[in-house]
Amino acid sequence: MKKVLTRNTSTLYGDRSRLVGDCTELRGDCTGLRGNCSGLIGDCSELRGDCSELRGDCSGLSGYCIGLSGDCTGLNGDCSDLHGNCTGLRGNCSNLRGNCTWLRGNCIGLSGDCTGLNGDCSDLHGNCTGLRGNCTGLRGNCSKLIGDCSRLIGDCSRLRGNCTELIGDCTEIVGNLDDIEITFGTNIMELVK
Fold first, then answer.
1. The pLDDT of residue 192 is above 60
2. CATH superfamily ID and name for 2-192
3. Suppose 156 and one of 37, 71, 94, 104 were both cysteines; which one would form an S-S bond, judging by CB atoms 3.0 to 4.6 Å apart?
């Protein structure tokens, strides 16, 4: 009888030790999970900040592109006026023979500059259109990533709750085993007497 009691006591102590070890490991895993969740929350906050900054930059770019479009339209008008003035000057050249060659050269040069500036405006307008498209794509990516972050943070909150519950269960089970050990130990002592 004493051998059976000793064997049962050893088994009980061994089970308790394993359970305490499992609970300790669970606590460590939960602590790691809490750390990962805190890091995730920090990363998501940083992402939200970056996305807000991107939205601001894109809004600024949109305003710049609208202003550039207005400037290019104004430049087109100025070039048209200049072209008209050059045409008028050519008509007056018959009266001002000496200065006409110089004026014609300047008008041709200015017309070339206007053509070049109009080309630059077209290029810039194309670049603005491309950048606006990129901004739209990046805004979409930001919205998706922020949605993913919100879901992950929700998952983390649930897992943290589960961890807290499991640790509570472990503590209760270990406490119950301690009570059983005390009762079992007392009964063995009574039998051995």
1. no
2. Methyl-accepting chemotaxis protein (1.10.287.950)
3. 37
User: If we measure between CA atoms, which residue out of 123, 130, 147, 138 comes closest to residue 56?
Assistant: 138
Nearest to 121 by CA among 175, 67, 82: 67
Residues 76-106 pLDDT 10s: 788 778 777 777 766 666 666 666 666 667 7
What is the maximal distance between C-alpha atoms in the chain? Answer: 142
Residue pLDDT, tens place only, 100-139: 666 667 777 777 788 788 788 888 888 888 888 888 888 8
Q: Where are the domains of the chain?
A: 2-192
**Whole-prediction pTM value?**
0.57
